[in-house]
């Protein structure tokens, strides 16, 4: 069995960007990667918990694993439209490992998330259960360890469906590791580092640590605490001699750091606290905690202040899945998604509606996102028939405690949320939760999305009702001192590459099941209407499942109107869109795999809203044109051409002829009506008369080529690295054919495997891990994961009538 020192292990877990090489596994210094070489069986086998159970015929696999996402969609699956018609069930995982017991050592198994109702056994001994599928947890293996061969068995039970209001995933879908400590050690999440006073000149650091003494006798020891600067240099050291009783002890130390390097959304420098427990000269245990030096404050007058500076939270809500990989999301898939959000100008993410994977927070720390960290969707009354609500009363205290202790050292985490649209909750119970939370962290404000009818949270979080005309203003007039937050404002409802010129309103035109009883006559009064772009629809025949990519398919308010409102209301310090990415499940129109809520689709391809947000949130000069310019049947028809840009003016040219320059306006978009004729539209964006950005859209000819764009040229043969291959169907000149839907066949050779194929089409029910997929609106994505062997990974794509295309990627020994 290999032991990796802390930093080495982390490097292995996240062998991508150098800046991410120290992510995630803060904590005890000896951790053992336990993700690989498991046996899996789908179906219940009660005897599989026995130590001697013969699992040799079971399937071999590596974790993280989500058996739902690798299954076929089936409209008869009980998960239904909520769960993307993917199956649940009961699954067993087993793994044997050799161990040599040593006195004075403790071994733990740590799970970042198992969906759901997990039970764990070692050598036939039941360690416990954990109903909540999103919580991280651990067990102490020590008392039941044997010398030589040990067996771990895990049962995950997601058989009663629907167990969530969205696609949940099934199985051990996050990482697993072993953590080895001495018998005097800092337990998992046993540190709490805060920065009570922060200025440019100095920062006061408070470091609290729990120390567990399992030796059975009192011990006199030294706690040596180093504070390491972002470059690893020692900047402060505290040494405390203390007598540790048996059981849990608490040690608090404080330190001052002069001229600290502050953490912010732009400068994401992090420090490390390294605890070493010393018995005389001998170091018996070590534990590291990453933290950031920053101050946060929120009030109704100034909004949100990061290091004393006002900052509007331009946020998105995200679910935990990532399209075709389901809930088992490799780091590089998550990282690609977060980088796309960052480039859009997004600075905040809400973990709707449950704890995310530990690596998510570490990436947010390093990329500079502010996180609204949400513990639960509903509470004790299930919102989906078999969800966590069934277990809530028994488990919420343990789960909320684990969640806060796990995440409270991350500088990115700036707000806690204790729930989302909790039905019929008791006010006294909100207080109970807030009190428990405040006992674990006092440095961050607490909200509850749509929980403002009770007074105990610090921030009033508004969901859809906050999109309605006048709601926020009215609340503010009544509670002028309460800062307001748009926990779910506003919705995106777009399908990539689809356009309609008449405005569509969800309640009127494509009602979601949860608003079946809503009457448009009533709803209309609350809606900020958007004028139609044309009197008669230009793009007829869009399937009812798809929504327009002009900013004109809305629930209650469009992006531009909402942006203006957010600018006006100083007390509304942030808004989180529903959602950053399309997520599996919760299909508003059925049958579909998802709704159209994402700013990006299931493949992570940007829809047009992406560029609208970019023009509003990211100051880097840009201009984007929509729609595409391939409309063969529309010669002479006037087509609304929209540009999104943060420049002062945009001039549009058709085949070299100017169609006029427009100045930026309150409309937050530039609009021309352009009679269709083949050719190229070019938009030139100017600031103070100077060209700052330009873009073109060109009429595409017939599909002629398969373009393949890989996001990297080499990977590590570490069973983790992922290559994203973006595929475009283009004409002979390389212009993407916007309506292309060619069936693509993929042939992979070498040391890689396809872990996802995705085109973003919400009504394409083909399997997501397959070697065939149609392009949708000209595009498709293939995700390839490296195996453990070095070599050349080759992907060939073919489609009838088009020449073969291929790419090669080197997979190198880690
Ligand atoms: C909200 C809910 C979200 C999502 C959204 C869809 O009410 O909090 O989870 O369901 O509606 O519009």
How would you characterize the overall build of this protein?
Helix 2 runs parallel beside helix 3. The chain is mainly β and 814 residues long. The chain has an 8-stranded parallel β-barrel with strand order 24-25-26-27-28-29-30-33. Strands 5-4-6-11-8-9 form a 6-stranded antiparallel sheet, with no helix packed on it. It is built from 10 helices and 49 strands. Residues 1-23 have low confidence and may be disordered. Helix 2 (331-344) links the parallel strand 24 (313-318) and strand 25 (348-351). Bound molecules: beta-D-galactopyranose.
Q: Specify the overall morphology.
A: globular
How are the strands ordered across the major sheet? 24-25-26-27-28-29-30-33
Small ligands present: beta-D-galactopyranose
Helix content: 10-25%
* Tally of individual helices: 10
Average pLDDT, all residues: 95
Summarize the structure.
With 814 residues, this protein is mostly beta strands. Helix content is 12%, strand content 38%. The two termini are 18 Å apart.
